[in-house]
Specification:
Layout lengths: L5 E5 L3 E2 L13 E5 H6 L11 E3 L12 E4 L4 E7 L22 E7 L1 E4 L4 E4 L10 H9 L8 E2 H8 L9 H8 L9 E2 L12 H7 L5 E4 L5 E4 L2 H4 L10
Parallel strand pairs: 3-4, 10-11
Antiparallel strand pairs: 1-2, 1-8, 3-7, 5-6, 5-9, 6-7, 12-13
Helix pairs in contact: 2-3
């Protein structure tokens, strides 16, 4: 990470040139209050935040708020950034920084912001995303359109969680498959259908998705979808 005097924010994408920029991610930008890092005796940048703001009341700095800068650039705050081991050395305990690690957000209007830019905050302009990863999983999969598929890796991005959550996706799918959610539109990271998703093949074919077969070394038929033909990607999903 480097300190910059100017950032270019791109709608439905994030910060121009940032490795974490992604249309489907709810964590394109991390913002912290200067008052919080001052209270914690932490220097700007050490929490791996992108933007430090000053002068906003703690009660207004909440998920669901809208930050609008004088250039017209705007950020929707989505959910609190969870304290993690990458910053553990900065504080006595991760519990002490709960709720002060900053709030993540998505860019909903493009524009340039600079050090010293003025901004205004409007609380409760959007629904806050859940702090619970499983609830964000549900929130993401209901947005997958008919005739499109997503992979495990995309779900991780859409939920806004670390790659370590890949191992939790099968559990989430089993938990959700008994409910009325479009889990049949989810494939593993190589495009294979998932054995415990009920009627996945027929449901995909009903939506116009072609399911292919291959025979593996154990002489078992394995069903898969050519990902490149049906992948749902580059869809900014947190603009409203």
């Amino acid at each position: 990470m480097v300190e910059l005097k100017t950032l270019n924010l791109k709608i439905g994408y994030g910060i121009e040139g940032d490795i974490n920029a992604d249309p489907i991610s709810p964590r394109q930008v991390l913002i912290v209050r200067y008052e919080d890092i001052l209270d914690l005796s932490i220097n700007p940048g050490e929490l791996r935040e992108n933007i430090v703001i000053m002068g906003i009341e703690f009660d207004n700095f909440i998920p669901g708020s809208l930050l609008t800068f004088e250039s017209g650039a705007a950020i929707r705050l989505t959910f609190h950034c969870e304290p993690c081991k990458r910053i553990a050395h900065l504080v006595e305990s991760l519990k002490s920084i709960q709720g002060k690690r900053g709030i993540l957000g998505v860019v909903i209007k493009s524009g340039e912001i600079q050090v010293g830019s003025n901004f205004r905050v409007q609380a409760n302009k959007f629904p806050a995303l859940s702090e619970n990863p499983y609830e964000r999983f549900l929130n993401f999969i209901i947005k997958i359109p008919s005739g499109k598929i997503v992979t495990y890796k995309q779900i991780i991005k859409g939920m806004g969680v670390d790659n370590s959550y890949l191992r939790a996706i099968p559990t989430y799918l089993k938990k959700t498959s008994i409910a009325d959610y479009p889990v049949h539109r989810i494939l593993d990271s190589k495009g294979y259908l998932i054995s415990y998703v009920s009627q996945q093949k027929s449901k995909l074919e009903t939506e116009g998705i072609k399911v292919l077969f291959e025979v593996d070394l154990s002489n078992l038929n394995k069903s898969f979808v050519d990902i490149k033909d049906y992948l749902w990607e580059n869809a900014p999903i947190y603009l409203e």
